[in-house]
Amino acid sequence: MDARVNENELIKAGSRYLRGTLNESIADELTGALAPADAQLCKFHGFYEQDDRDHRQDRAERYLEPHYDFMLRARLPGGVCTPAQWLAIDGISSTLGNGTIRLTTRQTFQFHGILKRNLKPLIQGINQAMIDSIGGCGDVNRNVLCNPNPVESALHAQVHAWARRISEHLLPRTRAYHEIWLDGEPLDGAESEPLYGETYLPRKFKTAVAVPPHNDVDVYTNDLGFIAIADGDRLSGFNCLAGGGMGTTHGDASTYPRLADTLGFVAPDQVLAVAEAVLTTQRDFGNRISRRHARLKYTIDRMGLDAFKAEVEQRAGLRFAPARPAVFTDQGDRYGWVQGTDGRKHLTLYLENGRVADLPGAPLMTGLRELAHVHQGDFRITPNQNLIVAGVAADQCARIESIARAHGLLAETRTPIRLSAIACVAFPTCPQAMAEAERYFPELLDQIERLAADHGLGDCPIVMRMTGCPNGCARPFVAEVGLVGKGPGRYNLLLGGDGTGLRLNRPYRENLNESEILAVLDGLFRRFAAEREPGERLGDFSLRVGLVASVGRPSVPNPVEVSLGTH
Fold first, then answer.
1. Considering only CA atoms, which of 27, 567, 24 is closest in space to residue 303?
2. Are 30 and 215 in contact (CB under 8 A)?
3. Which of 304, 416, 529, 532 has the smallest count of CB within 10 Å of its CB?
4. Starting from the edge strand earliest in sequence, which strands make up the sheet with 464-467, in order?
């Protein structure tokens, strides 16, 4: 292998298809951590090594190693699980995690606070519930997003089935996960990865499937996207997208958020071939020297869209048809009851920032446990960190709603601003965090809601998102107001998203503390209330009056800066 490649490439190449020395690391009782190479490989098995940053300095002063623990993210295509599976998830969190469950923007759940000795029993526990964490993280295709109401119509059911097929088709084929965690028999003979090869992808790869008019999956922010095109309730095919991604690096203009390009229309029976072709093109042309420039968005900008599209067509053995019209009207969740076509209803619950715990005055975890004991349909995690109680029979609606209301799970009394807001985990566990997000955002929203009410905007929908760093896990770069952590108590403020996930925002002010954020928003809300046009959203207003310039995606930087890919 080229000696110039990133160190992670060498780790993957020598890992024996993701085995590494994980067995030895797990058995080492002298440390709560894994060996450094295994700490990279474990991501492919669905978990990250972390430490409690709230106690890092104190432990260092006492000559103790950091308080290591792990976060595990499950693979749950389209976010669907049964009540029995939810009860298993709940029980595992209480016994082997930190007693909470985190619903993520990747439409799945995470366990936090897992000690090393509990990793294997936890993975075995979720597998007994028919859930796995293969590809939950790592340089492979991640959990496939899909509009979270697949039984709302016959079309949704068809689309969700394709999301599951894509997820299964793009799974790694190594037996390492089964050998290490499920005590499977070691493979006798040669092993290969027909899609990924021995070094897998240069970087993570995200896929989403959207059903217009709801862009709740933010389909254009994914490496690979499919927009369902319908003829009534019949699925005609998909518009295929490629090259979206949120992550940037502060101060590095060669990194940028990007919305996906449209490649064209494909029939349903062409979907898997196209997904494989996009993935393998990224495998072979992606940057393996600079992980900062390794996502598919940079590969496309380096190759040029026409060349990339031609490569995908050649590999898939097809030609894209012209994309068909598709209209999106929103990027959030539809709270309350939604009527399905089969006589059943779906109730969208509100879980602030996706954290499931028993809180003062709102025993959310207990409430969901009670719902799981009586619900006869299934649960669907949304890409906006909420949960849908799906497939509720008419004679069960009153009981389901009563339990949800008694445990603080309904969206009632919350403002549109709060209901549209999402945040990443950030401190104390995320090693990339530069500032608070999940723990701080609710408190900041209290003050933002008061400002909005003061200016007569209390009922105005505004998409606001916060992340603790510029990696963009909560997709802040397509929010009308984005807050991106710059340092402790400091955030960059971005404006100009369109409320549908079809337009990037732009930086407006940098390195603001809380009082500065509130002062800027106070002035913005005052002007918006006085000058907005009928029906105008804040993001559109920000562009119209020139607060920020319109952007579909940033201009391509100097090609020399990102032309380090190896084929």
1. 567
2. no
3. 304
4. 422-423, 464-467, 481-487, 490-495, 506-512
d(CA 113, CA 363): 20
SS3 call for 429: coil
The span from the CA of 567 to the CA of 564, in Å, is 10
**pLDDT surpasses 90 at 190:** no
Identify which of 433, 479, 438 has the alpha carbon closest to the alpha carbon of residue 356: 438
- The token pair that represents 506 in the structure block: 């732009």
Output the 3-class SS for 122-163.
Answer: HHHHHHHCCCECCCCCCCCECCCEECCCCCCCHHHHHHHHHH
Average confidence (pLDDT) over 332-348: 92
Catalytic residues: 73, 142, 204, 206, 424, 430, 469, 473
Measured CA to CA, the distance from residue 282 to residue 271 in angstroms comes to: 17
Mean pLDDT score of the chain? 94
Give the CA angle between residues 433, 434, 440 to the nearest 5°: 80
Q: What share of the chain is helix, strand, coil (3-state, %, to 5)?
A: 35, 20, 45
CA atoms of 1 and 183, how far apart (whole Å): 32
Strand-strand pairing, 345-349 and 234-242: unpaired
Q: Specify the pLDDT at position 342.
A: 81
Helix (H, G, I), strand (E, B) or coil at 547: coil
- Paired strand residues for 347: 337, 389
C-alpha 8: how far from its chain's center? 22
| Residue at token pair 């009586």 | 374
Quick check: 257 and 554 in contact, CB under 8 A? yes
141-152 average pLDDT score: 90
The strand pair at 234-242 and 224-231 is best described as: antiparallel
Q: Apex CA 488: angle with CA 513 and CA 464, to 5°? A: 60
The span from the CA of 128 to the CA of 122, in Å, is 10
Here the tokens at position 66 are 């950091």
* pLDDT range class, residue 3, cuts 50, 70, 90: low
- Is the bond leading into 428 cis (omega within 30 degrees of zero)? yes
Token pair 């380096």 is found at 302
**What contacts 24+ positions apart, CB below 8 Å, involve 190-195?**
191/17, 193/17, 195/170, 195/276, 195/279, 195/280, 195/283
User: Does residue 360 sit in helix, strand or coil?
Assistant: coil
Task: Say if residue 531's pLDDT is above 50.
Answer: yes
End-to-end CA distance of the chain: 11
Nearest to 105 by CA among 333, 391, 272: 333
What is the full DSSP assignment across 406-419? HTT-S-TT--HHHH
For the chain, give the number of residues.
567
What pTM was computed for the model?
A: 0.94
What mean pLDDT do residues 342-354 have? 94
